[in-house]
Amino acid sequence: MTKKKIPSRQCVGCGVMKEKREMLRVIKTPEDTIVLDITGKKNGRGAYLCHSAECFRKAMKSKALERSLKIAIPEEVYKELEKELSGFE
To answer: What is the mean pLDDT of the chain?
Structure first.
């Protein structure tokens, strides 16, 4: 019997590999908007973050989200994402 492979992703903030289900997904939709994907199934290019505000701050400071999503992210979008992330902690 074969083992089922568990998908893992790397946090863009701290660089730690974790299971996909344990992380938050930030996506760039086809309309070029940045959205927090709670289900993990929305259509678009994704980047993964741990459930901590510290990882989000690291990703924001190093512009890791911008590199991963291949788009410049305005400051107001970062503030909106930070508000949404604070609800998950």
So the answer is: 90
